[in-house]
Design a protein that fits this description.
By secondary structure, the protein is α/β, with parallel strands linked by helices. It contains 16 helices and 13 strands. The chain has a six-stranded parallel β-sheet, with helices on both faces. The protein has a three-stranded antiparallel β-sheet with strand order 9-10-11, covered by helices on one side. It has a two-stranded antiparallel sheet with strand order 3-4. Strand 6, helix 4 and strand 7 form a beta-alpha-beta unit. This is CoA transferase.
Length: 415
């Protein structure tokens, strides 16, 4: 499991065996790969990661025609090398154990106990490599009454209470629980998992020993309730849905304008006073009902009754132009297309185009740049999201196998 040369990332030299698929695990390992780790993604022969088929939309070839590869896969698999191994095959299992002996990290998201039958569980691999850091990602964790259940982002968004605070209130137009527009629990689980792995790598410097990491989507879903969970624990009162209104700040929401909508995010009394001065209503900031944030939250209905007609008197662009130099947070509600066209997004280079030379007709793959900006060891975009099995021969040669041995494994359908 040799690491490619000319890698200067912060995690250069760290080898990750990625047995995960779909989103939470791959999101974790893409972060490690972006930071310079050599991530080898193990996929099923022929089928590959489930998300390769989760389309439309699909990637387009150089002629602009749809391919058979879904764009979903590309969101979380760049900078990795893909190999195909049948872990149900004894020789496939032996290959993966051999790779684990040389790895620093294993990430997997099989059901609880699912890899024990292949000798790929933590206990089996720790015996071969005591320095191994092994991260398991499941829906509900390794213990508890739900441990055996399969867990998916949508299910966990519902169970953890996130959907109960997302969407418009019951009885209003469009009211009812809603999921977030991205599989946010999966994404956050990937973030937490990568942080845990980095902590375990640091701990290994002191102890020389690896460790086991138990990550559960439900645990993460509860954790990212953040201030909403804290409010419930402080009061015993469960928060509800309130659309785009912030439960603890006012005015902090969207407003209708003369030609659309605008977002105001006023987080303190000084910002509110500057807003009032800008619209020619300085007296609002001295009104006892509105002078402090707490008062504004308590008298939100009165405040909105005054603000909503005023906000409808200008266009969205006019509001942004009026407030942007007053240090009053205000902005448009963009579509994804508009967001990518935003001058700040363009200036930050948040769209990246990565070339892919896999012989499948896909010349480049577009993606979103990593938000991690390290001055000394910056993220390097080494590889586009790989074609299925693109690096199988390369990785197996790194294990010392020659072309004949690789061909024999392929003939026996182990890879």
């Amino acid at each position: 499991m040799t690491t490619p040369a000319s890698n200067t990332g912060a995690l250069a030299g760290i080898k990750v065996l990625d047995l995960s698929r779909v989103l939470a695990g791959p999101w974790c390992t893409q972060m490690l790969a972006d930071l310079g780790a050599d991530v080898v993604k193990v996929e099923r022969p022929v089928a590959g990661d489930d998300t390769r088929h989760w389309g439309p939309p699909f990637l387009k070839d150089a002629a602009g025609h749809d391919t058979r590869e879904a764009s979903y896969f590309t969101a979380c698999n760049r900078n990795k090398r893909s190999i195909t191994v049948d872990m149900a095959h004894p020789e496939g299992q032996a290959l993966l154990r051999r790779m684990a002996q040389e790895a620093d990290v294993v990430v997997e998201n099989f059901k609880v106990g699912g890899l024990a039958q292949y000798g790929l569980d933590y206990g089996s691999l720790k015996a071969l490599n005591p320095r191994l850091i092994y991260c398991s990602i499941t829906g509900f964790g390794q213990d508890g009454p739900y441990a055996e259940r399969a867990g998916y982002d949508l299910m966990v968004q519902a169970m953890c209470g996130l959907m109960s605070i997302t969407g418009h209130a019951d009885g209003t137009p469009g009211g009812g629980p809603l999921k977030v527009g991205v599989a946010v629990v999966d994404v956050f689980t990937g973030l937490y998992a990568s942080n845990a792995i980095l902590a375990a790598l640091n701990a290994r410097h002191a102890t020389g020993e690896g460790q086991y990491i138990d990550m559960a989507l439900l645990d993460v879903g509860m954790a990212v309730l953040a201030n909403q969970a804290a409010g419930y624990l402080a009061t015993g009162q469960a928060p509800g849905r309130a659309g785009n209104i912030h439960p603890s700040l006012a005015p902090y929401q969207d407003f209708a304008t003369s030609d659309g909508n605008v977002l105001l995010a006023i987080g303190n009394d000084g910002q509110f006073a500057r807003f009032c001065a800008a619209i020619g209503q300085p007296g609002w900031a001295q009104d006892a009902r509105f002078a402090t944030n707490t008062a504004r939250v308590q008298h939100r209905a009165d405040l909105l009754a005054l603000m909503e007609p005023v906000m409808r008197g200008r266009t969205t662009a006019a509001w942004i132009a009026l407030l942007e130099d007053k240090a009053v947070p205000c902005g448009p509600i963009n579509t994804v297309a508009q967001a990518f066209d935003d001058p700040q997004v363009r200036a930050r280079g948040l769209r990246v185009e990565l070339p892919r030379d896999a012989g499948d007709g896909i010349a480049t793959v577009a993606g979103v740049a990593s938000p991690m900006r390290l001055s000394g060891t910056p993220v390097i975009y080494r590889n586009a999201p790989p074609a299925l099995g693109q690096h199988t021969d390369e990785v197996l040669r790194g294990l010392g196998l020659d072309n004949g041995a690789i061909a024999a494994l392929r003939e026996r359908k182990a890879v």
